[in-house]
């Protein structure tokens, strides 16, 4: 790895270091870094991890503890083992043991484990703890816990992290992959340039190309699996609800959804005139909601729009007629503005009232955001002029 000196138009090599030489330890440093930035172990859009426990020792009849326990967007538990400068010989065996222990965890146990983690984290920070079930459902983009497939049979993933891997470890990982064991190896290398320190995190097994192929095969297999009874019920209810709701919308003054077809998801979205930013209706088992979502691929653009709207919060809420919930979601790409109402969504007797509520409040939300969004379109075009050198400007101009 090299450091670029644009003034001299030269590159200078960075000095490869050992963690131990720099005084870094596995538990106090590497584990802490990955706990607070698990994105270092992901491969891009959609491949996110949510840390749900660290130093987990909640296994029956053993005092062993795994370094980090996470969950991915598909509801799979991810066992993360860190070994600093050397992987050692037994890291694969350790990770497999932990995976076998975690395979027995039921859905509610996973939630309880996550809640204990959030409670401890809040205690350390002197803040109120988040609700584990709510955070989990939001991360999984799910409606309710009952319909979520969480920690299903043979779904556990392994992630190994070390600066150096012994041959017996890499050979074993490659062999296990032939039997469908999802195991990744990340090589972490510290560098130094003067007083500055750098960390390179690189997935070495499987290679990114092989990983894409494996992900594609797993996705195909998942599509071919028979949906659970709960999922089928949810899909039927959602489709039926959206059919009657869209019919009611077509007869209202809100034209956002005139060209939208009913689906099986718990949400329906319509464009706002700004690419990647939509007005959404949410139909949940316990809530109906209207929201404006800013979910462009570039997080800085989402935050730009959110901040412009937040600066007009009082005016927007006055037009809307109520206080909205503003969610900047700084740890994620998307931002949201929303307003909801508790309901028994799966009781069909409530559907006419729920539908009318959605029509009324989406009409108000579109009106409240209409004028500010028109001004923001121009702001985005102006912002794009400053981004053209990075290649982002063209996209902004095209999509805004």
Automatic annotation (TrEMBL):
DUF4268 domain boundaries: 237-371
InterPro entries recorded: DUF4268, tRNA_endonuc-like_dom_sf
UniProt-recorded name of the protein: DUF4268 domain-containing protein
């Amino acid at each position: 790895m090299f450091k670029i000196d644009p003034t001299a138009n030269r590159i200078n090599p960075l000095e490869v270091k050992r963690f131990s030489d720099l005084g870094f330890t596995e538990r106090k440093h590497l584990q802490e870094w990955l706990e607070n930035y698990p994105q270092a172990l992901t491969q891009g859009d959609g491949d996110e991890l949510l840390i749900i426990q660290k130093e987990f020792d909640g296994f029956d009849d053993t005092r062993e503890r795994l370094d980090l326990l996470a969950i991915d967007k598909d509801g799979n538990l991810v066992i993360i083992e860190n070994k600093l400068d050397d992987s050692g010989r037994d890291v694969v065996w350790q990770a497999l043991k932990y995976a076998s222990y975690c395979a027995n965890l039921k859905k509610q146990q996973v939630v309880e484990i996550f809640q204990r983690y959030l409670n401890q984290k809040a205690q350390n920070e002197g803040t109120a703890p988040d609700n584990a079930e709510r955070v989990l459902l939001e991360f999984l983009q799910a409606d309710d816990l009952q319909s979520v497939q969480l920690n299903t049979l043979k779904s556990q993933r392994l992630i190994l992290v070390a600066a150096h891997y012994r041959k017996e470890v890499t050979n074993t990982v490659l062999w296990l992959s032939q039997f469908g064991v999802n195991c990744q190896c990340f090589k972490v290398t510290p560098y130094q340039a003067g007083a500055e320190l750098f960390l390179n995190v690189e997935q070495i097994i499987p290679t990114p190309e092989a990983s894409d192929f494996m992900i594609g095969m797993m996705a195909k297999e998942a599509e071919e699996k028979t949906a659970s009874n709960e999922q089928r019920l949810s899909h039927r209810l959602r489709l039926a609800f959206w059919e009657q709701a869209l019919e009611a919308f077509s007869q209202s003054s809100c034209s956002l959804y005139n060209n939208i077809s009913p689906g099986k998801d718990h949400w329906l979205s319509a464009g706002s005139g700004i690419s990647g930013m939509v007005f959404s209706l949410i139909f949940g088992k316990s809530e109906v909601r209207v929201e404006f979502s800013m979910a462009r691929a570039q997080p800085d653009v989402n935050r730009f729009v959110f901040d412009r709207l937040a600066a007009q919060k009082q005016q927007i809420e006055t037009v809307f007629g109520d206080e909205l919930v503003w969610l900047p979601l700084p740890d994620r790409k998307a931002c949201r503005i929303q307003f909801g109402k508790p309901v028994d969504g799966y009781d069909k007797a409530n559907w006419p009232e729920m539908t009318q509520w959605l029509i009324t409040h989406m009409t108000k939300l579109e009106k409240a955001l209409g004028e500010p969004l028109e001004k923001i379109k121009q702001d985005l075009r102006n912002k794009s002029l400053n981004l053209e050198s990075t290649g982002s400007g063209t996209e902004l101009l095209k999509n805004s």
